[in-house]
């Protein structure tokens, strides 16, 4: 299997027709078709279902396309990294940050964006599942995400810390008289949430915690405005749409009128993690260790976990995390 064949495969998959893919690649259509057929013979699978109107990927083709995108992105990145090292340029890393995490890690993210010595870091906001997918497909080097679901644990990761969420209530709500709101008292309250996708892990944990007996039909109201999350959710609460979860120490200082925030009993804690594809190159390890160290701030609203002890003296957190995952 050659890299050239993988690039041909992606062009055909993206364009849906051999003729258009050949034009994009600046080669003859028969030659492109022969290359795909050679790849199919080598792998002993059919990659495309061919019809007069259009071609479609088979399950085997879909699996290879996913892998091919990662492989080619890594090859392109390796080429750039080697060139940068050879002529003394700074390395460039891409960091995705899921919604609301930037409210907790504002200082560390600004520090990363300003540049770690020898590294330029571009920071972009992204929904949680999208951030993880960007790392999987090598479109990002690392991502800061909320608690991952079980099927998202194929990436290496380390917990930066836990964040305590409270309940956001409309001003004057009867439950605001309590210093701490029992979760049991929320059983019949309408719950305002962002859409489940792309926040599967944090969404399920939040709803299960606030409504441990299960949600009644229509009890969960969705606020679809992800671009302005979490402000849109807080404004919906202020308008009387229901109650919501909000980060203690953050939700009540965002300038949204008409709401009050109270701690929960029992409290709701959600982890923030930084994830990456292993094995991580040295620049990615430096970024991870910078985030871990920056999150360990006594003035932050994130509570860092007890870090592992032992191992090589001075060993970075990222190396310990990767070694622990390989066991």
What are the key terms here?
single chain; 327 residues; alpha/beta; Arc Repressor Mutant, subunit A; D-Maltodextrin-Binding Protein, domain 2; eight-stranded mixed beta sheet; two-stranded antiparallel sheet; globular; disordered C terminus; DNA-binding
Provide a compact summary of the structure.
It is built from eleven helices and 14 strands. The protein is an alpha/beta fold and 327 residues long.
Structure description:
The chain has 327 residues and is an alpha/beta fold. 39% of the residues lie in helices and 22% in strands. It contains 11 helices and 14 strands. α8 (200-210) links the parallel β8 and β9. α1 crosses α4 (59-86) and α2 (18-25) packs across α3 (29-43). The two termini are 31 Å apart. The relative contact order is 0.13. Mean pLDDT is 84; it is low at 310-314 and 323-327.
- Sequence of secondary-structure elements: HHHEEHEHHEHEEEEHEHEEEEHEH
Average of the residue pLDDT scores: 84
CATH topology category name of the largest domain: D-Maltodextrin-Binding Protein, domain 2
The level-1 CATH class of the largest domain: Alpha Beta
Structural class: alpha/beta
Span of the ends, CA to CA: 31 Å
Overall domain count:
3
Helix content: 25-40%
Number of strands: 14
Low-confidence stretches: 310-314, 323-327
The count of helical stretches stands at: 11
Task: Examine the secondary-structure arrangement and name the CATH architecture of the largest domain.
Answer: 3-Layer(aba) Sandwich
Beta-strand residue percentage: 15-25%
Gyration radius, rounded? 24 Å
Q: Main β-sheet, in a few words? A: 8 strands, mixed
Q: How would you classify the quaternary structure?
A: single chain
- Give the CATH superfamily of the largest domain: Periplasmic binding protein-like II
**Overall form:** globular
């Amino acid at each position: 299997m050659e890299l050239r064949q993988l690039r041909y495969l992606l062009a055909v998959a993206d364009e849906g027709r051999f003729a258009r893919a050949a034009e994009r690649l600046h080669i003859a259509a028969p030659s492109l078709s022969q290359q795909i057929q050679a790849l199919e013979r080598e792998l002993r699978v059919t990659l495309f279902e061919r019809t007069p109107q259009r071609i479609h990927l088979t399950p085997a083709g879909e699996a290879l396309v996913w892998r091919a995108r990662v492989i080619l992105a890594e090859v392109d990145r390796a080429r750039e990294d080697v060139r940068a090292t050879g002529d003394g340029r700074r390395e460039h890393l891409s960091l995705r940050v899921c919604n609301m995490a930037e409210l907790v890690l504002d200082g560390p993210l600004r520090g990363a964006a300003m540049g770690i010595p020898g590294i330029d870091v571009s920071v972009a906001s992204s929904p949680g599942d999208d951030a993880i997918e960007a790392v999987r497909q090598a479109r990002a080097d690392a991502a800061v995400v909320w608690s991952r679901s079980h099927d998202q644990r194929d990436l290496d990761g380390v917990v930066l810390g836990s964040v305590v969420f409270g309940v956001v209530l409309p001003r004057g709500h009867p439950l605001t008289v309590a210093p701490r709101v029992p979760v049991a008292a929320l059983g019949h309250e309408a719950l305002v949430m962002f859409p489940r996708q792309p926040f599967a892990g944090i969404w399920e944990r939040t709803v299960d915690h606030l409504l441990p007996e299960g949600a009644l039909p229509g009890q969960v109201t969705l606020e679809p405005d992800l671009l302005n999350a979490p402000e849109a959710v807080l404004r919906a609460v202020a308008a009387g749409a229901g109650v919501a979860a909000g980060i203690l120490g953050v939700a009540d200082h965002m300038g949204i009128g008409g709401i009050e925030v109270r701690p929960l009993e029992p409290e709701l804690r959600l982890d923030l993690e930084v994830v990456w594809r292993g094995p991580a190159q040295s620049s990615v390890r430096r970024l991870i260790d910078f985030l871990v160290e920056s999150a360990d701030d006594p003035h932050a609203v994130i509570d860092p976990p007890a870090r592992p002890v032992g191992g090589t003296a001075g060993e970075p957190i990222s190396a310990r995390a990767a070694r622990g995952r390989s066991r």
